[in-house]
Amino acid sequence: MPSSVTEYDTIAAISTPPGEGAISIVRLSGDQAVAVAKKIFKGRDLEKVASHTINYGHITDPADGSLVDEVMVSVMRAPKTFTREDVVEINTHGGIVATNKVLQLLLGYGARMAEPGEFTKRAFLNGRIDLTQAESVMDLIRAKTDKAMQVAVNQLDGNLHHLISNLRQEILDSLAQVEVNIDYPEYDTDQMTTNLLLEKARMVSKKIDGLLKTADSGEILQHGLGTAIVGKPNVGKSSLLNRLLDEEKAIVTDVAGTTRDVVEQYVNIDGVPLKLIDTAGIRKTDDKVEKIGVERSKTALQGADLVIVVLDSSRELVDDDIELLNATNDKRRIIIFNKNDLMPVITPETVEQIKSDDVILKTSAIKNDGIETIKQTISKIFNAGLEDNSNNVIITSARQAGLLRKAKNSLNDVISGIEAGMPIDLVQIDMTACWDTLGEITGESYQDELITQLFSQFCLGK
Ligand SMILES: Nc1nc2c(ncn2[C@@H]2O[C@H](COP(=O)(O)OP(=O)(O)OP(=O)(O)O)[C@@H](O)[C@H]2O)c(=O)[nH]1
Ligand SMILES: [Mg+2]
């Protein structure tokens, strides 16, 4: 990672969401940031004001002197800024037209339009944050619950960065030992070095396993747990959705085939963001519209991370139920016996067909009974991966998880190599590969292409 600040051109973007608001912020970064802002600002001389001050004044169009907006301008001199470059933030009066005009003026007077994520990219390239921290900036922006936000803040703080750096140092130490061994074979420390390497490989591998266990939960935190509620018509799927959301979102009637389309809504369950999907009841039908609905239900079912299969406990199981149970057998699922307030015809105990170790719950959507237990069950599924998460680090990105798996593969090669009695300098190659891969996680070793791709996922102005 470069340690000294490299010089880049000056970039500008609107950093607040598009639309009307109380204020909008136009941000500039680069060594010409203050000079460019000064050209369109009437007020105190921005090049003379103290760093980290906010200054009242007006933006005017230098071409005709016309007034654009009344603003507050923050001037922050490098290096104590988000990008480690000079940063200027112009607070405008929230309107779309005025804010755009300010940006256009800046672009006309020497700034270049920033690419998505370019401010954060500079923070990385200028060595203020590592890649895991840059990713956490994006996580923070997209966080759907407090918990997701907390995880992102921890990572922004550098928790994962430190953990990975420590692992890399351990590997480096053991590699140094190998070098000594190769350079001075007369010391006959062969066995010692091999043992050391094996011990280190196992230790690092265990740490990586621990991190990978959190990846599932991290993914859920980021993207929400896609949860499809499925079942034959009229079993109470929409009623359950409404109870879980605590609002009358989906239409409920006693007509079988009420829900025709897929209804989606995010809900926060103990900090777990859940994307709940209510679906059309699955049955064989000749109705043209319902048929399409049933197809959509099947697609939702396929794509779901978790399936809630709803059965009506007041009626005999029919083929449609059994088919659905079979179709969801290999899915992570919760089976629900709804309408528990009515005389039971089927119970989990008497249903021979369900030979599964899935969680089975009894509920009554009408009486709001058992809904808490559904929530607790979902929360448990999420927390399963975090049980021995002593490092307080959660892997939230697929990129990080992929690299961890790759690093672990190298370690497996180290371990099996040693066990097979391979020469130490060959084992060393795999250990070095692991060190490199871990470096990719933090961005200590990186490819330009990857960096460009990563930051392009950011929003504009960040
Ligand atoms: N007694 C009783 N009735 C329920 C319960 N849950 C739902 N119902 C009733 O069952 C009927 C169907 O409920 P919905 O929630 O529309 O069922 P659905 O599975 O979404 O039905 P479709 O959209 O047609 O597939 C309605 O009359 C509900 O009031 C329950 O727990 N107990
Ligand atoms: Mg419905």
TrEMBL record:
Annotated K(+) binding sites: N234, T253, V255, T258
Major localization class: cytoplasm
Enzyme class, broadest EC rank: hydrolase
SUPFAM superfamilies named among the record's database cross-references: P-loop containing nucleoside triphosphate hydrolases, TrmE connector domain
Keyword Membrane in annotation: no
Binding site for GTP: 234-239, 253-259, 278-281
Binding residues for Mg(2+): S238, T259
Cofactor(s) listed: K(+)
Transmembrane region(s): none
Any GO CC annotation of this UniProt entry: cytosol
Subcellular location: Cytoplasm
Textual note on the cofactor: Binds 1 potassium ion per subunit.
Sites where the protein binds (6S)-5-formyl-5,6,7,8-tetrahydrofolate: R27, E89, R128, K462
Family per similarity comment: Belongs to the TRAFAC class TrmE-Era-EngA-EngB-Septin-like GTPase superfamily. TrmE GTPase family.
Protein name: tRNA modification GTPase MnmE
